[in-house]
Amino acid sequence: MLFIVIPVFNRWAFTEACLHSLRQQTHADFRVIVVDDGSTDGTGQRLRHDFPEVEVVDGTGQLFWTAGVNAGIRQALRQGADRILTLNNDVVAAPDFVARMLYWAQRLPTALLGPLELDAHTQEPVYGGEVFSWLTHRRQDLLQTLAPEQRQGLHPVTYLPGRGLLIPVAVFAAIGLFDEKRLPHYLADFDFTSMARRHGFPVYVNYDAHLLTYPEESGQEQTRRHRSLRGYYQHLFGIRGGGNLRNFTHFALKNCPTPLVPLFLLNGYARRLTGYFLH
User: Fold this and answer.
1) Under CATH, domain 2-217 is a member of which superfamily?
2) pLDDT of residue 120
3) Are 166 and 209 spatial neighbours (Cβ–Cβ below 8 Å)?
4) 125-127 and 130-132 as β-strands: parallel, antiparallel, unpaired?
5) Buried b (16+ CB within 10 A) or exposed e, 212-251
């Protein structure tokens, strides 16, 4: 059984649209667990009233993304899940999204899969995976290297985000859950998928499965939209900071090849210290 796990905190309009899109799936044999981490906008009550088929797990208000996802995964595993799909609430799944993800999952049962992401407003592709160089700290964006006729099927990548990530349960048995202690919010998904790949689980973007996203709604984009010294501090040290130096250090020490760690850290620190004001 496939379980879909969605961590939420407020922003009911996004959660509602996401869950409606799941109701419209052509393949409906799955269960949904929403982890409501102390929402104050009535999300918990609306979930139980408007979506009675959804199981709600209540959080403490301090789970953030990683612990929230883990809470939902633990609940799914207790109920016998054989695959888990982590999903953010600010996405809308195409009607055949689940079917197209499971099509490849059944053919490659040990693979982790992520979708091609489209801008919800323009329908243009915005994220199609990356191949990352630990030596140069550069990302090869597959959307820039693949010709339009190649944008189908599976393409191997270095890591995947968690906003539409299909995971076979064998991965959890091999490497555990997401690292909520060292990576409470950002980078936990890249860390988890990188570790899974090193343990022999292939990692692919599935260009046949489409997920509509709102790039401008990410925490990093909102912080950079109104740049300030306070925002800069949050960027570097806040739990939701996209450039959090502590999180980056943990990610580097866990995933970068050992001989490249010093250079990788220096490069990464420089990018994070200057990138907030340059991009």
Assistant:
1) Spore Coat Polysaccharide Biosynthesis Protein SpsA; Chain A (3.90.550.10)
2) 95
3) no
4) unpaired
5) bbbeeebbbeebbeeeeeebbebbbebbbbbbbbebbebb
Q: Is 92 helix (H, G, I), strand (E, B) or coil?
A: strand
Beta strands in 17-134 (DSSP E): 30-36, 55-58, 83-87, 91-93, 112-119, 125-127, 130-132
- Above 90 in pLDDT, residue 217? no
Taking the domains of the chain in order of start, what are their residue ranges?
Answer: 2-217, 221-278
Q: Determine phi and psi for 78, rounding to 5 degrees.
A: -65, -25
pLDDT for the residue numbered 235: 73
- The 10s digit of each residue's pLDDT in 19-37 is 999 999 999 999 999 999 9
DSSP of 212-253: EE-GGGSHHHHHHHT--HHHHHHHHHSTT-TT-HHHHHHHHH
**Tokens 């290297």, located at residue:** 145
Q: What is the dihedral of CA 88, 93, 99, 101, to 10 degrees?
A: -50
Question: What contacts 24+ positions apart, CB below 8 Å, involve 223-230?
Answer: 223/276, 224/276, 224/279, 227/276, 227/277
pLDDT for 87 beyond 80: yes
Write down the pTM of the prediction: 0.92
